[in-house]
Amino acid sequence: MGIRGELFTNQVNLDKRSYYFNVKENRNGDVFLQIVESKIKDGQDERRDIVVFADDMQSFLGGMDESLRAVEKIQKERAKIRAEKKAAKEAKYAMGGAPDAEKPAKKIYRRKGESRLVSERRAERKEFSGRLHVVSKRQPDSEKTEY
């Protein structure tokens, strides 16, 4: 028997946390699994542990296995939904609505207070290059009026 009754120890390091799986034996000879989560928060080591006795391990591991299958199923469903949304979005913005088009159709942005029809007409009339042409409203010097 090792230090503090340890029979077996396994460590799993993740990004900001470490997990320790310790199989131990107490003074009465009972074997149990101790799961310890350790993380550093605000410069201090924070530790939490769970103890599962040998009699309950099969039920505990059965619950863990069922939870793992549920998580995998949920992740697959969400990935499928994301892929469907992405395909629908690409089809919506593709040129001419064809899914195999090379460039997506240009998205039309409305100005504040502008209706959808006005913004579509503005986009049809003129391609917006992102540059503004400023025209001065000043009158030539010969036609200036003094105030």
Short description:
The chain is of the alpha+beta class and 147 residues long. Helices cover 32% and strands 26% of the residues.
Task: Tell me about this structure.
This protein is an alpha+beta fold and 147 residues long. The chain is 32% helix and 26% strand. The chain contains 2 helices and 4 strands; from the N terminus they run E-E-E-E-H-H. It has helices at 57-93, 116-125; strands spanning 6-13, 17-25, 31-41, 44-53. A 4-stranded antiparallel β-sheet has the order 1-2-3-4, with no helix packed on it. The longest helix is centred in the middle third of the chain and has 37 residues, at 57-93. It is elongated, with a radius of gyration of 34 Å. The relative contact order is 0.06.
Radius of gyration, whole Å: 34 Å
Terminal CA distance reads 102 Å
The strand order across the widest sheet is: 1-2-3-4
User: Can you tell me the residue ranges where pLDDT is under 50 for at least 5 consecutive residues?
Assistant: none
Count of beta strands: 4
Count of helix runs: 2
Question: Mean pLDDT, as a whole number?
Answer: 80
Q: What amount of the residues lies in strands?
A: 25-35%
Q: What is the H-and-E element order?
A: EEEEHH
Q: Please tell me what the overall shape is.
A: elongated
The level of helicity is: 25-40%
Structural class: alpha+beta
